[in-house]
């Protein structure tokens, strides 16, 4: 029998099979560290690491706001997994079910529906569950039809295109109501994602307005809706109040202790009684664990996260590990009883290091290490040259905080290749003007050809030829989601 690319003869079982579910922070960094430690065994066929992920790349989410604003190319916000994990098997697909008693995961791939062979069974000895999280939504009327998420690089690109095209609509229409709706941008959620996305896009749109003969920066209406009484709780109460003042100083309407009640027919209705048309509604009101976790049969918390020990092993279960958004990990650095580590990137990256070490220790029969990390602080960008930071208990704001934000995330983005590309783009951005081009047709590139070929595209398909906004179009009950094509 001929050996495969790893030198393993067909039918030969590797001594160690590790299955990593998810290609995010935890998944990629855990697989990368295991790859480095087991490189010789991987190449000889004595070990196997399989990474199952829906996308062939890891997204560095802290850079999504800058990608949406055009400060960074979207290509440089993602890390190609096949290039980084050369000695691992990367499977593009989704885990549908895990039978941990049999050490088997059921996976659907891109080929599942094409070849008719059905789902694939992947056997493992150790499993790392790091599927990440999904947007946490509420049953708000109209949200599913008109809301825009902000969790993936595709959503960041789509939102940038959408905002610029709303300026095009407002500039061309002769209907004051359509103009007002196009120039109204509502963001729901006052955490990092919502505040940074709003601040960066407001900065970009205000700059872009100078190139429209009939749009002034003051014509744009930006609204941040937050259900609690504060925003950016991670930077502390004092800095949170500073951010509110900073945003309001830029004519951004910050509404605390306010909820979104409805957005049907693109009419936004808030719990404070406000009601107004808006063609842009961005939902960033939190996340929830991946639904996959419920299909594993492993112990979960009331919030749907895996119960884990401080050593990042699933509680009461051998050979199952987790970290990041999917795991409820005891916070050994906190004095508060029962405290858990926050599901953020700072913890995920550090947990991945300990997780990989503990898997190797377990394979070698050595004692495990508990995860313990005391946060050094938090940073947030509020647009070009503006930011806030809490570093070792000291509050920093303005340009210094923005610089700290960039330096910190440049140091954390994976691979030297990405660091160099991001730094080069920042340098060039300081020398040249912003790009304000919308490429909304990228989302549905066949629309023009379908028309030319005589096809009849679904007029309600988001971004389809029939869904293109035209000057004078008003809200309609048949309108599709507010995609980049307006």
TrEMBL record:
InterPro entries: FAD/NAD-bd_sf (IPR036188), FAD/NAD-binding_dom (IPR023753), NDH-2 (IPR045024). Residues 17-348 form the FAD/NAD(P)-binding domain. This is NAD(P)/FAD-dependent oxidoreductase. Keywords: FAD, Flavoprotein, NAD, Oxidoreductase. The keyword NAD applies. Gene3D superfamilies: 3.50.50.100. Residues 449-486 are annotated as: Disordered. Residues 457-471 have a biased composition (Basic and acidic residues). Belongs to the NADH dehydrogenase family. Residues 472-486 have a biased composition (Low complexity). One of its GO terms (molecular function) is NADH dehydrogenase activity. The keyword tRNA processing does not apply. Pfam families: Pyr_redox_2.
């Amino acid at each position: 029998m001929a050996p495969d690319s790893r030198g393993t003869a067909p039918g030969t079982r590797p001594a160690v099979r590790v299955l990593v579910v998810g290609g995010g922070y935890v998944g990629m960094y855990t697989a990368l560290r295991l790859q480095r430690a087991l490189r010789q065994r991987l190449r000889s066929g004595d070990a196997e690491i399989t990474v199952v992920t829906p996308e062939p790349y890891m997204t560095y989410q802290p850079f999504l706001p800058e990608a949406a604003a055009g400060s960074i190319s979207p290509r440089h916000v993602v890390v190609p997994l096949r290039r980084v994990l050369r000695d691992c098997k990367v499977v593009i697909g989704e885990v549908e079910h895990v039978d941990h008693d049999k050490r088997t995961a059921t996976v659907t791939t891109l080929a599942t529906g094409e070849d008719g062979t059905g789902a694939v069974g992947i056997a493992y000895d150790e499993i790392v569950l790091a599927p990440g999280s999904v947007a946490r939504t509420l049953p708000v009327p109209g949200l599913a039809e008109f809301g825009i998420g902000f969790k993936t690089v595709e959503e960041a690109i789509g939102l940038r295109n959408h905002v610029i095209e709303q300026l095009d609509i407002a500039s061309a229409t002769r209907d004051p109501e359509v103009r007002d709706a196009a120039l109204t941008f509502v963001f729901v959620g006052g955490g990092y994602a919502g505040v940074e996305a709003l601040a960066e896009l407001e900065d970009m749109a205000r700059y872009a307005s100078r190139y429209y003969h009939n749009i002034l920066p003051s014509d744009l209406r930006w609204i941040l809706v937050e259900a609690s009484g504060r925003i950016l709780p991670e930077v502390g109460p004092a800095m949170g109040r500073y951010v509110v003042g900073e945003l309001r100083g830029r004519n951004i309407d910050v509404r605390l202790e306010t909820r979104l009640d409805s957005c049907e027919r693109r009419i936004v209705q808030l719990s404070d009684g406000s009601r107004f048309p808006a063609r842009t509604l961005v939902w960033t009101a939190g996340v929830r664990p991946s639904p996959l976790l419920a299909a594993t049969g492993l112990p979960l918390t009331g919030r749907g996260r895996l119960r884990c020990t401080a050593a990042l092993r699933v509680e009461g279960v051998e050979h199952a590990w987790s970290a990041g958004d999917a795991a409820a990990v005891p916070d050994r650095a906190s004095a508060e009883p029962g405290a858990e580590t926050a599901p953020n990137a700072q913890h995920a990256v550090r947990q991945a290091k300990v997780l990989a070490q503990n898997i190797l220790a377990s394979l070698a029969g050595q004692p495990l290490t508990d995860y313990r990390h005391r946060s050094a602080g938090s940073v947030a960008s509020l647009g070009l040259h503006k930011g806030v930071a809490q570093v070792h208990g000291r509050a920093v704001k303005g340009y210094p905080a923005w610089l700290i934000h960039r330096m910190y995330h440049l140091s954390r983005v994976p691979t030297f290749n990405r660091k160099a590309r991001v730094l080069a783009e920042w340098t060039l951005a300081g020398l040249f003007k912003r790009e304000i081009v919308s490429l909304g047709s990228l989302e549905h590139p066949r629309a023009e050809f379908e028309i030319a070929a005589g096809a009849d595209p679904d007029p309600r398909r988001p971004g389809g030829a029939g869904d293109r906004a035209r000057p004078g179009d008003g809200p309609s009950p048949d309108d599709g989601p507010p995609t980049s094509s307006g």
